[in-house]
Structure formats: structure tokens, C-alpha cells
Q: What sequence folds into this?
């Protein structure tokens, strides 16, 4: 790669012609006699060369290897012939076009030996990665974050570790070029504040999210999802501070709905909640890196989890809407069909529900209701939210019976009710359980908070297995699931 | 080659220089390693330190690098990390 060192920017004359060329381009070599002819005829011509500074010999080219002039002109192909008047571009001819070049130069027989027209080649400003480097070089304030210069012998990946920026796995070093490319994934201004991130309550800009998204391994097109997730996480009702600070194992889980799932290649099928898909993995990880780095939330600091869980590295997947018998989670939660959205949940690890025998919905609902009893403790109830991830084969059992999501939910809630006396502290020779005041006034008690069962359709087509994902404490003192539109 | 530049991913509340490891709250009931880097008379200095530390109720573990001209071997570093809460290195003669 060509290095771009600082140097004064050459100025162009306000009037006359400017031809931008590079020797590497056959059309540029073809037009050399025409350039010489213009120079000999006294046409006010400046030739700007992008590669070998002596090219073309005999016309006194201006060295633009640093591409300062080409960048300013916005050259996309070479040769390009500009005609300036009073510093303003009056005409532009891209490639070799005999008629246009004759008009511009006023030489009626210019290029008589040359073909009528030839397309040019890509300007060096369009080389891969060049856009970002040139913007950093020539556009002041392109990025605001503190620049950290590494030692000459320092390995960038190790430098990220030693500064405490990683979750334990290596991160992609956030170079200014990579961050600028990441910012290309959103139309939002890089200085816009996305959220106030706990626990340090730091204003987090789009640029800071982009830096952490680079580190997490995101592609630019994932950035809108990450931005939505960060904003959702930092709301009062989701309460990422509480999720972080609690001694319980929970962390933010992200369910993605809408067209962006397929646009960015998310996995909602086989191993949807597991490893192997870049978008799933990197988006969830980016949110956690924002909390760690921008918010300052680190294990042993404000993160006091007794055990934690592997989903705290990353926990993000998409709903399989296409094959679902039901409306998507986001639609159920008020987002229009066809609009992309994230739903965040303060999640424990997933727990499989095996039922390979139920062929009618009540039986399957009973299995799921039984499995949900294990959330937190079989004798604790009333205050919990649960996500039920229904696999396609289980969903088919409900769908074949014509059950709506509402019916599924109501059946599971109903079959999950337990005799209140069994849940009381000390009952069944087990000290844990509900205090007497909850038990005395009711015959039976539901496991979950009212409206506390959320249903998502995902997973591979084979396997009569679903998953339940327990939460943290629901309600105003805990964490409420939250759904946010993804701005694309 | 110019040095690589990274953008700070943090809230920028702390200095960008790498921070020292967290200090021990005190030395009572700790194990302090004394690392002799094999420079002349480093052992004399460390003997005196050991006497003072032991007098303060600290458990002392002595280590020695094979040569001061090279970084400490990995297994030596791991032994120190395994046994000690902190380490004092006698750097030069």
C-alpha cells in the first residue's frame, strides 16, 4: 500500500484545463500525444499524475501520488479532463473522447491519430481502502476519539489485551481506517449520542459504538443493529446497570426481527443460538464490548456475577419468521410488519426442553410448562419472565392444531400453575420458596409474571426440542424486555 | 514504518497510558516474591529486603532469573504468579 505522508497541498490555477492521469492506465498512455500537442499549442493545461511523477514526459506533470488533488476533484476515472473558469469546474470529460477534448482545448484536429473514444481506468482514489485513508488525511475531524499510538514493536492485538479492551477473546484492532469504514454502515452522524452507558454513565456516540463494533468483528452493515441494541440496553426499563451489577448470571440477549436479518446473513436456523455465524456472534459481542469499554462495566468491578454464563460473551440470534406459524416477536410488540427491530432480554443461559412424543398441543404445552418450573428455583414463582424459543418441529404441533401464539401462551401459563402450598418456604422439606403472604391468599400460583412469556420461532428443521431462557427479576426494579426499531 | 494508531474504545475517563496493576492494600499475610535477575550483588540487596519483610510478618519466596540479558522464562513467571501476591525485582547492581 502507498503510504500517505503529510505534505503541502498543491494549488491548481483558477482557469484552464486540468488532466488527471496515471501511467498504469493504457488510455492515459494513449492520450499522451494529445496532452503534448495542447502544451505545444499554448493551451493552459496542468497535468496531474497519480503514479510515476515524471509521467507523461514533456508536459511538466504535477506529482499527485498523495492524491490530494485527485481527492479534492473527486476523480473517479483517469484520464479525466476538467475545464476550470474562475476556480469552478465548467466541464468534465471522463476517459478519452475526441470531440469533448477538442471542445475543451479549442484545437480542432486534436488527437486525429487516436480513436474516437476510449474508456479510462479507475482513479487511484477508488482503490480498496483508499477512501477511508484519504478521508482521514484530508477531512479534518473525520474521527474524534482519542488516538493511541502503539510502540513500533507492539502487536496491535496484544495491545488491546494489555489495555483491558477485550472480553478475553482477541479483538480486531480498531484502526481509524476500519472505524471510518464501519461508520459507512449508518447514515447517522458519528457525533450523535446513542445512549448514556452505565455503569459510568458515559455519553456514547455513534463513533464509539463503531469502534467497539470493529473490535467485535462486525461488518459495517451490522452497525444499525448494534446501535439499536445499545440504545435499547441503556433505557431505564431494560436496566443494563442492574443486569451488570447483579450477582446473578444474566446478560443481554438480542433477538433480531425484520428484513435486516437476511440482508446481513443472520442465522435463525440450525444452531441459531450457537456459534458459527458472524452477524449473530459479532452483534451480541459488540453490545457487551460497549458496556465494558464505554460504560466501564467489567467483571470484578461493577459486574458482580457469581458465576456468569457463556452468553455474556455474545447472545444474539434472529427469529425464523419465514416458516413461523405466528406473527414475529417484533410485530407482537408493536413494530410494523416488514420493519427491522431488536428485542433485548436480560437472559440466563438457554435450557433445552425435550418432548419427542407429544403430537397434540395440550401435551406439548404441559411439557413446556413443566420445564419452566426450573427457572431460578422450582419453588420460586410469580415474578419471572421467560423466553420460549420454539423449534420448527414443536411449532408444527401447535400450528397443526390451529393454535395462535396467544393460545400457546395461555395454555403454558395455565399448566404451569402450582398449588400455592407446595411453593411455601419450608414446604417439601426445602427452605427456599415463597413467603407466606404470597401463598396464603391463593390456591394456585402462576410461575411467571402476567405477560411474562415471550415466544420466538427459531432453530433447525429437525429436532423436537425447544429452549427456555429464564430472566432476571422482572418489573420496575428489575429488567423489562424492550423492543426497538433498527434505523436502516 | 510509522507506528500503528488505534482509536480508544473507552469512555476516555482514564489516561491513555497503560495503568499499573492494582496495588496490594497492605503486605500483612501476603507472599512477596523476590526476583534476583542475576546481576552482581543483587542477592545482597534482596537478602536485606527479605530480612525486613520477614520481620514484618510477610512470607518471602526467592526466585532467580538464569541471566539478566534475557526476559524471565515463562515457567519462572508462572511460578511467581502462582505463589506470590506481589514481586520485587532487584533490577541492577
A:
Amino acid at each position: 500500500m502507498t503510504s500517505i505522508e503529510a505534505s503541502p497541498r498543491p494549488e491548481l490555477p483558477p482557469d484552464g484545463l486540468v488532466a488527471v492521469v496515471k501511467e498504469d492506465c493504457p488510455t492515459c498512455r494513449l492520450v499522451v500525444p494529445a496532452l503534448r500537442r495542447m502544451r505545444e499549442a499554448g493551451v493552459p493545461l496542468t497535468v496531474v499524475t497519480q503514479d510515476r511523477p515524471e509521467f507523461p514526459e514533456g508536459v511538466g506533470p504535477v506529482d499527485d501520488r498523495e492524491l490530494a488533488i485527485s481527492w479534492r476533484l473527486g476523480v473517479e476515472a483517469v484520464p479525466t479532463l476538467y475545464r476550470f473558469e474562475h476556480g469552478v469546474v465548467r466541464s468534465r470529460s471522463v476517459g478519452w473522447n475526441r470531440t469533448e477534448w477538442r471542445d475543451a482545448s479549442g484545437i480542432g484536429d486534436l488527437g486525429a491519430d487516436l480513436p474516437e473514444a476510449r474508456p479510462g481506468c479507475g482513479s487511484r482514489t477508488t482503490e480498496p481502502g483508499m477512501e477511508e485513508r484519504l478521508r482521514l488525511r484530508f477531512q479534518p475531524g473525520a474521527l474524534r476519539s482519542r488516538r493511541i499510538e502503539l510502540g513500533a514493536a507492539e502487536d496491535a492485538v496484544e495491545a488491546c489485551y494489555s489495555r483491558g479492551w477485550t472480553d478475553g477473546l482477541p479483538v480486531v484492532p480498531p484502526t481509524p481506517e476500519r472505524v471510518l469504514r464501519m461508520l459507512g454502515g449508518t447514515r447517522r452522524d458519528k457525533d450523535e449520542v446513542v445512549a448514556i452507558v452505565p455503569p459510568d454513565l458515559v455519553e456514547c456516540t455513534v463513533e464509539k459504538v463503531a469502534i467497539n463494533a470493529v473490535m467485535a468483528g462486525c461488518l459495517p452493515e451490522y452497525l444499525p443493529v448494534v446501535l439499536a441494541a445499545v440504545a435499547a440496553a441503556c433505557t431505564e426499563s431494560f436496566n443494563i446497570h442492574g443486569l451488570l451489577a447483579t450477582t446473578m448470571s444474566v446478560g443481554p440477549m438480542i433477538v433480531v426481527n425484520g428484513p435486516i436479518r437476511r440482508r446481513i446473513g443472520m442465522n435463525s436456523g440450525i444452531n441459531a443460538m450457537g456459534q458459527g455465524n458472524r452477524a449473530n456472534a459479532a452483534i451480541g459481542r459488540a453490545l457487551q464490548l460497549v458496556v465494558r469499554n464505554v460504560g466501564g462495566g467489567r467483571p470484578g468491578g461493577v459486574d458482580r456475577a457469581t458465576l456468569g454464563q457463556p452468553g455474556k460473551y455474545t447472545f444474539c440470534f434472529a427469529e425464523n419468521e419465514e416458516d413461523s406459524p405466528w406473527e414475529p416477536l417484533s410485530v407482537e410488540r408493536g413494530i410494523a410488519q416488514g420493519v427491522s427491530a431488536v428485542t433485548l432480554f436480560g437472559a440466563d443461559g438457554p435450557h433445552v426442553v425435550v418432548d419427542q412424543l407429544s403430537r397434540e398441543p395440550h401435551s406439548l404445552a404441559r411439557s413446556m410448562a413443566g420445564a419452566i418450573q426450573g427457572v431460578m428455583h422450582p419453588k420460586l414463582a410469580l415474578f419471572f419472565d421467560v423466553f420460549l424459543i420454539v423449534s420448527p418441529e414443536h411449532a408444527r404441533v401447535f400450528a397443526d392444531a390451529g393454535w395462535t401464539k396467544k393460545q400457546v401462551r395461555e395454555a403454558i401459563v395455565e399448566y404451569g400453575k402450582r398449588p400455592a402450598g407446595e411453593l411455601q418456604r419450608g414446604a417439601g422439606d426445602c427452605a427456599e420458596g415463597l413467603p407466606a403472604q404470597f401463598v396464603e391468599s391463593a390456591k394456585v400460583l402462576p410461575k411467571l409474571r402476567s405477560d411474562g412469556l415471550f415466544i420466538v420461532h427459531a432453530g433447525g428443521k429437525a429436532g423436537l426440542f425447544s429452549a427456555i431462557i429464564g430472566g432476571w427479576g422482572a418489573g420496575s426494579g428489575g429488567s423489562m424486555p424492550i423492543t426497538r426499531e433498527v434505523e436502516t | 514504518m510509522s507506528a500503528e494508531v488505534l482509536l480508544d474504545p473507552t469512555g476516555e475517563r482514564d489516561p491513555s497510558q497503560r495503568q499499573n496493576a492494582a496495588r496490594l492494600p497492605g503486605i500483612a499475610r501476603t507472599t512477596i516474591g523476590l526476583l534476583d535477575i542475576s546481576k552482581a550483588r543483587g542477592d545482597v540487596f534482596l537478602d536485606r529486603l527479605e530480612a525486613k519483610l520477614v520481620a514484618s510478618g510477610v512470607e518471602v519466596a526467592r526466585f532467580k532469573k538464569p541471566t539478566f540479558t534475557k526476559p524471565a522464562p515463562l515457567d519462572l513467571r508462572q511460578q511467581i504468579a502462582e505463589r506470590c501476591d506481589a514481586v520485587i525485582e532487584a533490577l541492577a547492581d
